[in-house]
Amino acid sequence: MTTAVPLIYSFPEFSGVAEAVADHIVAAQNHALYGDYNRKKSMSDTNIASQFSSAAESMRLTKSVSEHQSASGNGTNTPSSSREQRKKKKEENRRFRIGLSGGSLISVLREGLLKRQDVEWSKWDVYFADERLVPFDSPESNYGKAKSQIFDNIPPEKGYPNIFPIDENLLNDPQECADTYEKTLIKGFASKDSVKLPMFDLILLGCAPDGHVASLFPNHETLRESYAWCAPVLNAPSGPPTRITLTVPVICHSHRVMFVVEGATKAPVISTIMERPDKGLPASIINEKAAGRIAWFVDDDAVKDVVGITKKRYKFLVHSE
Ligand SMILES: O=C(O)[C@H](O)[C@@H](O)[C@H](O)[C@H](O)COP(=O)(O)O
């Protein structure tokens, strides 16, 4: 049995997993943006505007709110008001930084997130926990799949996330592709200060039947990478052979890590991960190293072979509107 006992939320149905995953993501979003899982939107100008689907109507409202603010003396520059303005500006500029994997996770996110009203897409910075080095229009591309299934379906009035895919010109050079993606991360996470590791608000992972997580494969040398943020993978034993992946230290430095795993085909690997950490599967390593910040969202089929774990009932964190 694993020494670091992760939180395991188990659901009888796929839709149950999708809804809980979406709730957990929105809670992480609210916490990153407002320091509160349940933040109700403040009635600031942009937020009032975003509640209205017609662009014309939102422009009219934004204008009338700012007119109201200047009429009520918001422009006066006392020390406390400028402190408040700086605080407000800082709050407005906050971003929710998330790392996505590929595979069936994308369909779970599509099912759970697109129907929610409280996803603040325009404040999301989306990176990829791993990517297969194939053209974006290939069905194997994690970015391509996330774009066509999720991002292209966000209603325009909800805004659009900043998305950071790999450089498609570097598909034939995995090392250069990984180095360039690392530079993208440095720009996003360490532009002002030097940081040892990027700190995502949330990294979402799946787990394949062979035990790979992101593109960290069992017994592969990338599992031991301790310096780079992003590493090339040259001989992946399943799926497209060349890939890039975030490394174990980066994944384990995330504020939260979430595994989303479904289906009876995953039952053997989940039982090895939970009951035989000594086998060193990538997910077991992450379970140990990020202990206390990990949650597993699974269906009952995926955990049917695991004995001796406590499955929790998921308590929704974000009150519906
Ligand atoms: O690019 C990849 O290979 C994925 O990021 C990978 O880590 C994925 O999450 C698992 O393979 C699970 O995929 P399924 O959920 O589709 O089994």
TrEMBL record:
Q: Which GO terms describe its molecular function?
A: 6-phosphogluconolactonase activity
Q: Which UniProt keywords apply?
A: Cytoplasm, Phosphoprotein
Q: Report domain Glucosamine/galactosamine-6-phosphate isomerase positions.
A: 86-296
Gene3D superfamilies noted in UniProt:
3.40.50.1360
Keyword Cytoplasm annotated: yes
Q: Which GO terms describe its biological process?
A: carbohydrate metabolic process; pentose-phosphate shunt; tRNA export from nucleus
Functional note = May be involved in regulation of tRNA subcellular distribution.
Identify its protein family.
Belongs to the glucosamine/galactosamine-6-phosphate isomerase family. 6-phosphogluconolactonase subfamily.
Q: What is this protein called?
A: 6-phosphogluconolactonase-like protein
This protein's species is Pichia angusta (Yeast)
